[in-house]
Amino acid sequence: MTSASRTTEETVAELDPIDSAQTPIFLRPDDDRGKELASTFDLEFRDIQSAPATDWYLGCKQGELALCHSSEHSLVISERSVRSKIDDARNTHLAKACMARRGRVVLDAFGGWGIDGLTLSALGCEVTILEVNSLICTMARYLAQELGCTAKVVCADAERYLQDTNEVFDVVYFDPMFPGHPKSAKPVRRMQILEVLARKDPDIEQIFEFAKSRTRDRIVVKRRRTENARGLVPDWNVSGRTVRFDVFQIR
After folding, report:
1. Contact (Cβ atoms closer than 8 angstroms) between residue 89 and residue 115
2. Burial of 176 by CB count in 10 Å (0-12 exposed, 13-18 middle, 19+ buried)?
3. What residues have CB less than 8 Å from 89, skipping those under 6 apart?
């Protein structure tokens, strides 16, 4: 176990709880590490014998939280697998588009595995990460703890959250699922699984309108580099080799 795994109760408490009644973890009765994860993340312990036959579910593999499937290899997103990406983030296009710096308040509205939001948090931003799927959200919370990150990870629908919150952010960041991926460029495995589990086709333009009233500085939308912006025309963008970040200045 990494040193980041042994976080204090205070660090864990900074992560908002999700609805554990809807988020079971399936374990062997003698899996003490799995039971520790269940306790830490308020998950409902169930016997592995009752695990879903055809769907993804939470489990424990080699001491780490994992997404498991009866006919697929398990997925673990460990601290080691993303540490270099986060440590090298300062000069990335993401950091430039969000103007990441200490104290900047950011909402990552479509968090997924949480990697972009956790990257901004590592750069000093005060980040809230939203993810509507409870399995994905729990994996993001686990990764945040492994990294010793103070970002809040919340299981919530972005549109409803933006309507209900009184908080105002410096940046609202959108990273919706890209349209169907070109067959010649198959995404990495964790993104393939995200495509299966994530909410399909959220109304970005509708959510964008709610975001404008909760943003002081800018909204940033991540897109595939060649993707049409459709009805949303940015003030400028920051482009990389495969993706671009459309920046909408709030006036």
Report:
1. no
2. buried
3. 95, 100, 119, 120, 122, 123
Q: Which amino acid is residue 95, in one-letter code?
A: A
Positions in the chain whose pLDDT score sits under 70: 1-22, 178-187, 199-201
Under DSSP, the state recorded for 42 is: T
Query: How does DSSP classify residue 16?
Result: P
DSSP secondary-structure letter at 213?
A: T
Query: Which strand (E) or helix (H) includes residue 172?
Result: strand 169-174
For 5-14, the pLDDT digits (tens) are: 333 333 333 4
Per residue in 133-143, pLDDT (tens digit) is: 999 999 999 99
- Residue bearing tokens 């014998």: 49
| Nearest-angstrom CA–CA distance, 169 and 128 | 10
Residue intervals in the chain for CATH 3.40.50.150: 82-249
The predicted model scores a pTM of 0.86
Say if strands 44-47 and 24-27 run parallel, antiparallel, or are unpaired: parallel
Contact 25, 37 (CB under 8 A): yes
Domain spanning 82-249: CATH 3.90.550.10: no
* Count of residues in the chain: 251
